[in-house]
Amino acid sequence: MAIIVTGASGLLGSALVEALRGGGQEVVKLVRRQPRADDEAFWQPTEQVLDLGVLEGAEAVVHLAGASIGDRRWNEAYKRELVASRVEGTRLLVNALSELSRPPEVLLSASGMDFYGDTGDRVIDESQGKGRGFLADLCEVWEGEARRAGEAGIRTVQARTAMVLSGKGGALGRMAPIFRIGMGAPLGSGKQFWSWISVDDWVAAAQHVLKNRDMTGPVNFAAPSPVTNAEFTRTLGKALHRGTMPIPAPAFALSLGLGEFAREGLLPSHRLEPAKLTDSGFRFTHTRLDEALAAVL
């Protein structure tokens, strides 16, 4: 039986597909263009197009599709796209899964640590309620659409993902060029906590969740050792053998340059504890930031 993956061309999707296939697992990628191979199937969330036959009898579905949060400056039109790309796609997928005579055992759907809002220096596990802000509201609606799959008897898990460390793009892909020229600096006060996870651990955690039938609901996909932004800055500078700027980038300047994304995505504090993963016996490969950066860089 196949595992169906949306967002398979993205940072996480491509890494997960490679790992699944490396373990002998059949994978079918849902793509929003004309399929080019037998392992691809067409879907178009904006037009509510999805062939039920592709999903019938699948072992699991991993839903990672959604417009990138940090690739563009936000305006009202792009914020609507961020919402629509997640909510409409999840709604279409769950509606389709609910109509199957042989539904998958589990749906693993992406979400984000932004669900919790700015939590200061408090340690946050999955029992924490929703925070404030656009991204928190977006995660709440996004997760709500995914949870509806439970009504069809499908085990549902929402992966509240921290910043993923990878040498192939993502957050490090945006930061590394700045650090390589010695211009890396703490952001705002630098005291805000940044939770993180290596891409290898994210993939392993996803596979763990798919196999573990006791896991359901929100799961923090984050390493057990979050650090402050100032510590992250120092550690990344050392990993790249570059010095960093002694003066932090002021919050007001970040807000002027990056707009609402700076206030929602860079300056809030997220100090996540991966309680469900650790309690279920999952073991992280990278628990220290310096080790994780050395591995991915």
Query: Quick check: average pLDDT?
Result: 95
What's the CATH architecture name? 3-Layer(aba) Sandwich
Main sheet specs: 8 strands, mixed
What coarse outline follows from CA principal-axis ratios? globular
Which CATH C-level class is it?
A: Alpha Beta
Secondary structure layout:
Blueprint: E1 3-6, H1 11-22, E2 27-31, E3 40-44, E4 49-50, H2 52-55, E5 60-63, H3 76-98, E6 106-112, H4 134-147, E7 155-161, E8 163-165, H5 170-180, E9 193-194, E10 196-198, H6 199-211, E11 217-221, E12 227-228, H7 229-239, H8 251-258, H9 260-266, H10 275-279, H11 289-296
Parallel strand pairs: 1-2, 1-5, 2-3, 5-6, 6-7, 7-11, 8-10
Antiparallel strand pairs: 3-4, 9-12
Helix pairs in contact: 1-6, 3-4, 7-11, 8-9
Structure characteristics:
eight-stranded mixed β-sheet, two-stranded parallel sheet, Rossmann fold, alpha/beta, 297 residues, single chain
Report on the structure:
The chain is α/β, with parallel strands linked by helices. The protein has one domain: NAD(P)-binding Rossmann-like Domain (Rossmann fold), CATH 3.40.50.720. It has helices at 11-22, 52-55, 76-98, 134-147, 170-180, 199-211, 229-239, 251-258, 260-266, 275-279, 289-296; strands spanning 3-6, 27-31, 40-44, 49-50, 60-63, 106-112, 155-161, 163-165, 193-194, 196-198, 217-221, 227-228. The protein has an eight-stranded mixed beta sheet, sandwiched between helices. Strands 8-10 form a two-stranded parallel ribbon. Strands 9-12 form a two-stranded antiparallel sheet. Strand 6, helix 4 (134-147) and strand 7 form a beta-alpha-beta unit. Helix 1 (11-22) packs across helix 6 (199-211), helix 3 (76-98) runs parallel beside helix 4 and helix 8 packs across helix 9 (260-266). The mean pLDDT is 95.
